[in-house]
Amino acid sequence: MTSSPPAPEPGLRKRIGAPGRDMTRPEVPEALPIPLYDNHTHLEFEDGIDQLEPLESLDRAEAAGVRGVVQVGTDLETSRWSAQLAASDPRVLAAVALHPNEAPKLFARGELSAHLSEISRLAAEPRVRAVGETGLDFFRTGEDGREAQIEAFETHIDIAKANGIAMQIHDRDAHDEVVATLLRVGAPEKTVFHCFSGDAKLARICNDRGWFMSFAGTMTFKNAPALREALAVAKPELILAETDAPFLTPEPFRGRPNAPYLLPHTVRRMAETLNMPLDELCAQLAANTERVYGSWDPEEAAA
């Protein structure tokens, strides 16, 4: 667990940022009073002019009170790399899956089944603690791709349950269909709505079913009162926090590159929304996250 983290293969890293955007990196914020975890991040992306390498990103996160991350795959390449990174650094656990927008493309090429089989193999690795991100996305995929998305989603659910690990759901413009699928097939015991995008109604459904809600920088945006309302009604034992870095950078840095070390901005806004002392919220988030994914410590996990 002390080996050097693997460098992303050529072509793995995708670059974000449009010409003219401010891509300078914010300073490391004041550390949180109790260390916690970034429940969902993508360290493989090239996220700015002064590109952070995974090791440096994790070091900055530690300095801000973010003791560990869940590195998330979206296709075979990023899932394999995520598993390798988790095996090389004790601050990282991995999630592996095919993003719902990948499923129709793979189905059209006749490759969906083979790719899902490889995800199933990766899910058995000891530092892979979640299947994700999977789910449904009706924003980017039209009617003709929905059947493939649902097939992939149901298979990911089966993989998570077979391995006794969590599932991270990508849900965009598909709340009703995601819930219907979970109820029809049977949700994994530890089901997480990554980057929760629903309203108070969906939060109450999650409360009733014991599904976790992971809040990202979007909950800090001025135009997102529905997310703050959802957070306010969510059961404290079911909330998590994430960056979805390098995307969804919290205020006051919206539009600039995100990274795990910026999670404290979201967590402080969550505490404000909940009228909850920051140290109590940090302790709750840390406990919730370990309940979902287990221990980051290799020795504790092996015990």
Throw out a few tags for this protein.
TIM Barrel; alpha/beta
Show the helix and strand layout.
Elements: E1 36-41, H1 54-63, E2 66-72, H2 76-88, E3 92-96, H3 103-108, H4 112-122, E4 128-137, H5 146-163, E5 166-172, H6 175-185, E6 191-193, H7 200-209, E7 212-215, H8 225-233, E8 239-241, H9 263-274, H10 278-293, H11 298-302
Parallel strand pairs: 1-2, 2-3, 3-4, 4-5, 5-6, 6-7, 7-8
Tally of separate domains: 1
Q: At the fourth CATH level, what is the homologous superfamily?
A: Metal-dependent hydrolases
CATH topology: TIM Barrel
Tally the beta strands.
8
Strand content: 5-15%
Largest sheet: 8 strands, parallel
Helix content: 25-40%
- Please tell me what the overall shape is: globular
CATH class: Alpha Beta
Total of DSSP H or I helical runs spanning 4+ residues: 11
Radius of gyration: 18 Å
